[in-house]
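Listing S7. Sequence submitted for prediction.
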Amino acid sequence: MPKVVANGIDIHYEEHGDSGDPAMLLIMGFGAQLTLWPDELVEALVSRGFRVIRYDNRDIGLSHKFDGVRSPGIVRMTLMSKLGLTPRVPYTLRDMAADAIGLLDALDIDRAHIVGASMGGMIAQHVAANYAERCLSFTQIFSTTGNPRLPQARKEALEALVTRPKSDAEEVLVEHGIMLARTIGSPGYPSPEERLRERTLSNLRRSFYPEGPTRHLSAIVADGDRSAMLRKITVPTLVLHGEDDPLVPCEGGRDTAACIPGAKLKTIPGWGHDLPLELVEILSGEITSHARNATN
């Protein structure tokens, strides 16, 4: 897989489709490798006439690792945030947005359709707010504004996300990954056991780096409430969210759409915090229709 130096660090990426087609940059979320974008979704976007680029965020997958750089404890960070203090963290979501722009620079792409999922949606918010001239459109998938008054993740979803596996044995890590996927996934579109196990094992063998998500979480907590920033976004925006998302409740998507002037919102019943194959046609259709309308 190719890599480039973007924003001063190595970023690994994949590119699909015709280089002459409009570029679409996919930004994945917390602790998630680029492979969490299903191949089927990427292929559907390509078939609709887009040059699709997905990449590993810093500190995950095959991109640059900030080995040994410590983050403040989550309890301390949460308390500081509630007191209105900004904790010092290894890097910020704005730094990660600069990674995305650095990747576009390295690929000689002036403007792109930006699509971000979960934490990737938060990063994409920074891209749309601070690099509007590089954005053809913005699509947010199951993400939120950081507004502390919004409903929080369900207890079982949050516990599944932050609980460490009992050991680093491959079989234990696979079972843990399956448990997490089941807990935060779509109740209306459950993944077949064989596919879930195969993907979990493949991702694990591609990269296992538990330090990265700790620093990702620090960046999320330190970012705070982005509502004021979102109100300044002028990029055409589509917000997609599952009505049954246990990790980032649908209110996060609704709040985002309410903050961004002119944003469109589509919610889907039965959809949780994953990208099930049953929704590939709907999601790819919504994303590409929005992208085309934004440039017509």
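Caption to Listing S7: primary sequence and predicted structure tokens for the chain studied. Residues 159 and 180 are 9 Å apart (CA to CA). The two ends are 34 Å apart (CA to CA).
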